[in-house]
Design goal:
Length: 261
């Protein structure tokens, strides 16, 4: 079977799994796929979502930590797309059944852009100049791959394992901040479970967003004015089950919160 046929087949399978809130057998166990194949699958899923009325509102960076890269056997991050149906209000309660498969919470710094960024050649300073504001954020990652048994092609194809995202209510000008030095704390059910710093993502969230702009540029995709950009997790992922409440506090950025039922 040709890779073109496989790309379309797996895009349809993952799209159906997304719509039916279920997992499928890992792609890496089914076929020999390249990273480019995986991105083509991701774009195929996005096309189906847009055809159904969803609208792209941003992008996300994943696999930013060395620990996760080592687990997946790669030396680079990946990316996915955010749509309007994936955004959840700060403090809202999300029912897992019928919305997610196997959610895990990760705290991030989110960027809200005021100008387009198109790679190649985007620098940290370009990102800073194009940013309207930053805020605290939870990305709730989720995998349509059985038991989170993922390799790099699985997570890329599955929209970088993105589920939903929550932005904090405070917006801050990043020019007044030392982003790599910002401390992040995550609380689960009122208990501190992890801490991290802005430097956890490629040394600086600005560097991570620049990487995203340059990588997307190779696929003919730009970061757009108004986009929300999730710059990567500052802490280890934390599994979420019904009844859990998560709150993150990021120095200078305020907090974000989400509950599960």
């Amino acid at each position: 079977m040709s890779n073109d046929v496989l790309v379309d087949r797996y895009a349809e399978e993952l799209f159906r799994a997304l719509r039916e809130f279920r997992a499928i057998k890992p792609l890496h166990e089914q076929a020999e796929l390249t990273i480019d194949d995986a991105y083509r699958i991701s774009l195929g899923i996005l096309a189906r979502r847009e055809a159904g009325g969803e609208r792209v509102v941003g992008k996300k960076i994943g696999v930013t930590s060395k620990a996760v890269q080592d687990m997946l056997g790669v030396d680079r991050p990946d990316f996915g797309f955010l749509t309007d149906t994936m955004r959840v209000d700060c403090g809202a309660t999300v029912t897992i059944a019928g919305h997610l498969v196997a959610p895990r919470a990760e705290a991030e710094i989110a960027f809200i852009l005021k100008d387009d960024l198109t790679g190649p050649g985007v620098t940290d300073q370009d990102v800073l100049a194009a940013t309207e504001a930053v805020c605290a954020c939870f990305e709730i990652v989720d995998s349509r791959i059985e038991n989170w048994n993922i390799r790099i092609v699985d997570t890329i194809a599955d929209n970088a394992s993105c589920g939903i995202f929550v932005l904090g209510n405070k917006r801050v000008d990043p020019r007044n901040l030392n982003l790599p030095a910002l401390k992040c704390e995550v609380y689960k059910n009122g208990e501190l479970i992890s801490e991290g710093y802005g430097s956890a993502v490629q040394g600086s969230p600005l560097t991570a967003v620049a990487w995203l702009a340059n990588t997307l540029g190779a696929y003919g995709v730009a970061l757009k004015a108004g986009d929300v950009i999730l710059s990567g997790s500052l802490v280890p992922l934390a599994p979420a089950v019904a009844g859990d409440t998560f709150m993150t506090r990021i120095e200078g950025l305020g907090s974000a919160e989400i509950q599960f039922a």
